[in-house]
Specification:
alpha+beta, 5-stranded antiparallel β-sheet, two-stranded antiparallel sheet, 6 helices, 7 strands
Length: 215
């Protein structure tokens, strides 16, 4: 980029003194006036101009990368910093959704290399809760005195209430401890869907209920 003597930044305001979203930027050159071009990143495979993301924005991405999906986190950080029209600097915004995905992939890889399955489940629980609490599956994770995770959907609880707690017609909720899952054990539950009948057997089908993953 050529050396500039100075530049002037003019912010427009209306008759009531309210600042506009538009700015006039004037450059004064040391020598003859000429165009300057923002080059691409040295590792880039395309010729897209490179704009460095501010350190504070990168820290925010890293802090929340495990808590939200990339699309959600990109929108949240963009809105938090005023969006494309009101941000103080383009570097205050995430460059694009791919940047958020890359940061998350690097953090996930580091977490996996540390071999910490409990941390991975905790991050998954937080991510699902922030993204869509009503449809999240990992609902609760505890670390002590023994690690455990409770997995269920709201639909499963609604079905259990409907098919196992009806005074007129119900069948019991069954609990089966335990199945091995690597170093963990799984306690499963199941219930009968009383609205459906198997043509061949004439019985109600069994449905998977909440799970407890534990030691």
């Amino acid at each position: 980029m050529p050396q500039l003597a100075t530049y002037f930044n003019f912010k427009f305001a209306d008759s009531k003194g309210r600042l506009s979203d538009y700015t006039l930027l004037e450059y004064q050159f040391d020598e003859k006036e000429h165009n300057f071009v923002i080059t691409s990143h040295g590792n880039a495979k395309v010729s897209k101009p490179y704009k460095r993301t501010q350190k504070s924005t990168m820290e925010n991405i890293k802090t929340d990368a495990g808590l939200s999906k990339p699309r959600v986190l990109f929108d949240e950080l963009t809105e938090k910093n005023g969006g494309i029209h009101s941000c103080k600097s383009i570097g205050a915004l995430p460059r694009d959704r791919k940047q958020v995905e890359n940061v998350r992939a690097r953090l996930s890889s580091a977490s996996s290399s540390n071999g910490d399955p409990l941390l991975a489940v905790i991050l998954k629980c937080k991510e699902d809760e922030r993204a869509d609490a009503a449809n999240s599956y990992v609902r609760k994770v505890v670390a002590a005195p023994e690690p455990a995770a409770v997995l269920f959907l709201d639909k499963q609880l609604n079905d259990i209430s409907k098919f196992c707690c009806n005074n007129d017609y119900w069948l019991p909720l069954q609990v089966d401890p335990t199945f091995d899952l690597g170093q963990f054990s799984v306690t499963t539950s199941q219930y009968k869907n009383l609205l459906v009948v198997n043509r061949r057997t004439g019985e109600h089908p069994s449905m998977l209920g909440p799970l407890l993953v534990h030691y």
